[in-house]
Specification:
Structural class: alpha/beta
Number of domains: 3
CATH architecture of the largest domain: 3-Layer(aba) Sandwich
Order of helices and strands: EEHEEEHEHHHHHEHEEHEEHHHH
Largest sheet: 6 strands, mixed
Strand content: 15-25%
CATH topology of the largest domain: Rossmann fold
Helix content: 40-55%
Length: about 425
C-alpha cells in the first residue's frame, strides 16, 4: 500500500500545524527529514532538514501498526504553523519519491478498511468535524464511539440465534426435535422488529439535531417579523420598513440556542396581493412555514392567525412597546419579552431533541427499513408451519445483511467514494 501524507490541521496561519503520514514507509520518511525516529507513541523534538537546509524544529510522534488511527504504521509532525514552514515540509516530503499526497478522506478510509472504524463511525466522525453546537457534538461523538455498532450487534446476535434455531429444525426434520422452537423464534423476531421500529421513529428527530431545527416567524405584513428577527440575531439581517411587503424572500439566520442548531426564518407577510413578485414571496412563506419544525405567529391584539397553529407552535403578540395585554408579548425594538420567547422556543425544541437516537441519516433509515421488511416476511413464513422454515431462515439472514450494510460490512462499495469525498484532505 502507498504511503500517504497531508496536512491534517486547518489551512492558514496558526500557532501549530500538523502533518500526518500513514503507510509502510512513514517512519522512513520521518527519518529522512530528522535522522532518526523516536520510539512509538513517545514524542521527541527534532530538527527537520532537507539536505543541508533546516526546515523547522518540530515535535515528532510515531505510531506502530495496529496502534494508530489508520491501523497502519504512521507518524505526525507538529510544526510551527507558518504558511512557509508548512509548504517547505510538504515539499520536502513530496521530493522523497516514495510518498504521495493523500486524497480527501483517505486516512479515514484506511481506518475503516483496517477495521479501526465501521461506516457508521466514519459518518459520526464527519458529523463531529462539522459540529457547530453542543448537541451536535454529543450526538456525533456517540456515533463515533461505536453506539450504532453496539446496537446492531445486539440485533444481529438475536437474529443469528433465530436463524440457528430454525436451521436446527430443518437439519433434524426426520428426527425427534426436543421442543418446538417457533415460539422462541417469534419472540426474537418480534423483539428486534420492535426495536427497529422505535429507532426508525427517532431518526427524524436525530436528523434535525444534526442538520438544525427551523423556526418560522409568521404574520401579516408590517407585523414586526423582520424587526424581531434582527433583535434575535443581534444584527441587521433583514431590511425593516414601514412599507408593507418589504420582505419578499425567506431570510435565514443560523443560531445556537442552548446547544441546539436553529435556523430562524423571516417570511413574507401573509396577505392577498396582486403584486406578482410579492405573491411568489407569500407562496414561499406558506411553504416554508408549513415545513418548519416550529412556527412563531406574530399577531396584533385580537388578530386571528391565517394558518392554523399546531402543537408546540407559539402565538405571540408583537409590538408590545405600543401597548400592554395578556399572554406572551414581545417587542423587537425594545427587546421586551425576547428572553421569554427564546426560552419558550428552546424548551419546545429541547423536548423534541430529547427523543433523538444514534441513527442520523437517510441511509440508516433505509437499512433499518429493509431489515424490518425481511423480519415481517420471516414471520409470515412461520405462519405456514415447519415446511417453510427454510424460507423464514433466509429472510432472517437477509435482515442480518441489511444491518451489516449499515456498518459498511457488505453492499456499500458504491457509497464509499461519495462519503469519503466529503472529508477534507488530511482526514
Amino acid at each position: 500500500m502507498d504511503t500517504i501524507y497531508a496536512q491534517a490541521s486547518g489551512r492558514g496561519k496558526a500557532g501549530i500545524a500538523v502533518i500526518r503520514l500513514s503507510g509502510p514507509q512513514s517512519w522512513a520518511a520521518v527519518a529522512a527529514l530528522c535522522g532518526n525516529v523516536p520510539p512509538p507513541r513517545q514524542t521527541a523534538v527534532r530538527l527537520l532538514k532537507s539536505g543541508a537546509d533546516v526546515l523547522d524544529e518540530a515535535l515528532v510522534l510515531c505510531f506502530a501498526p495496529g496502534h494508530s488511527f489508520t491501523g497502519e504504521e504512521s507518524a505526525e509532525l507538529h510544526l510551527h504553523g507558518a504558511l512557509a514552514t508548512v509548504a517547505a515540509v510538504l515539499k520536502a516530503l513530496g521530493s522523497l519519491g516514495f510518498l504521495r499526497l493523500a486524497e480527501p478522506g483517505e486516512f479515514t478510509r484506511r481506518a475503516m478498511e483496517s477495521g479501526r472504524l465501521d461506516l457508521a463511525q466514519v459518518e459520526g466522525l464527519a458529523d463531529l468535524i462539522e459540529a457547530e453546537t453542543e448537541a451536535q457534538r454529543r450526538q456525533a461523538l456517540a456515533v463515533l464511539s461505536g453506539a450504532v455498532g453496539r446496537m446492531v450487534e445486539v440485533w444481529r446476535s438475536k437474529l443469528i440465534r433465530a436463524a440457528a434455531l430454525m436451521e436446527a429444525c430443518i437439519d433434524f426434520a426426520d428426527e425427534d426435535v426436543p421442543e418446538d422452537v417457533t415460539p422462541e423464534v417469534r419472540d426474537l423476531l418480534k423483539d428486534v422488529a420492535a426495536e427497529l421500529g422505535r429507532e426508525m421513529a427517532r431518526i427524524s428527530v436525530t436528523e434535525r439535531v444534526r442538520e438544525g431545527f427551523e423556526v418560522a416567524i409568521v404574520g401579516r405584513p408590517n407585523a414586526g417579523k423582520s424587526t424581531l428577527l434582527n433583535a434575535l440575531a443581534g444584527r441587521e439581517a433583514a431590511i425593516t420598513s414601514e412599507i408593507a411587503g418589504t420582505t419578499r424572500d425567506v431570510i435565514e439566520v443560523r443560531m445556537d440556542l442552548s446547544g441546539l442548531a436553529v435556523t430562524l426564518l423571516d417570511t413574507a407577510g401573509l396577505r392577498e396581493t396582486e403584486d406578482r413578485v410579492e405573491a411568489i414571496g407569500v407562496a414561499r412563506a406558506l411553504e416554508r412555514a408549513q415545513q418548519a419544525d416550529l412556527r412563531v405567529f406574530l399577531l396584533d391584539e385580537g388578530e386571528v392567525p391565517l394558518l392554523d397553529p399546531v402543537a408546540d407552535d407559539l402565538v405571540v403578540k408583537g409590538k408590545s412597546d405600543l401597548g400592554g395585554g395578556d399572554g406572551l408579548r414581545v417587542s423587537g425594538k425594545t427587546g421586551e419579552g425576547l428572553d421569554r420567547l427564546v426560552a419558550e422556543i428552546t424548551a419546545r425544541l429541547s423536548q423534541r431533541a430529547s427523543g433523538a437516537g444514534v441513527m442520523t441519516r437517510e441511509r440508516h433509515r433505509d437499512c433499518l427499513a429493509r431489515a424490518e421488511a425481511a423480519l415481517r416476511a420471516a414471520s409470515g413464513e412461520l405462519d405456514h408451519g415447519l415446511e417453510r422454515l427454510d424460507l423464514a431462515a433466509e429472510q432472517c439472514r437477509t435482515a442480518v445483511r441489511a444491518l451489516e450494510s449499515l456498518l459498511g460490512r457488505v453492499d456499500v462499495e458504491a457509497l464509499l467514494d461519495e462519503i469519503f469525498a466529503s472529508f477534507c484532505i488530511g482526514k
